[in-house]
Amino acid sequence: MSAAEGSVWARLRDRVTASDPGLLRLAAGSRTAGSIALTLAVLSALQAPVTHLVAGAIASMAATFAIREKVRSRQAVTLALCLPVALASVSLGALLNSRVVIGDVFFVVLIFCAVYARRFGDRGNALGLIGFQIYFMSLFVGATVSTLPGLYLVLTVAFASSALVRFVIVYETPAGILERLREAFRVRLAQLVSAQLELLDAGPDQVDKALESVRERTARLHETALMVQGRLQEGAADESVARLVQRRIAGAEIAAERLGLLLLNLRSSERADTLTLHLPGAPLPSAGLRPVREEATDTLRRDLQALRMLVLRPAGAGGGTAMTHVRNRLLGYRDEENLPPAPAAAQDVFRGIGEAARAVLGLRVALGGPQDESDDSPATARSREELDAEDAAIEGTEAGEPETEKAPSGLRRPTTRSAVQVALGSSLAIVGGEFLSSQRWYWAVLTCWIVFINTSSTGEILVKGYRRLLGTVLGVVAGIVLAGLVGPHTWPALGLVLVFVFAMFYTAPLSYTLMSFFVTAALGLLYTLLHTYSLSVLLLRIEETALGAACGIIAAAVVLPVHTDRRTDELLVTVLDRLADVTGAAVEQLSGGPGTDLLDQARALDQALNDLRAAIQPLTHPITPLRARRNTAQYLLALLETCAYHARSLAATAELLPTHPSIAADPRLRRACARITHNIAALTAHVSDEHADAEIETGPSIASLLESGGSPGTPRYGRITDRVLRHLQRLDESVVGLARPLGVRLPTPKR
Question: pTM here?
Answer without folding.
Answer: 0.82
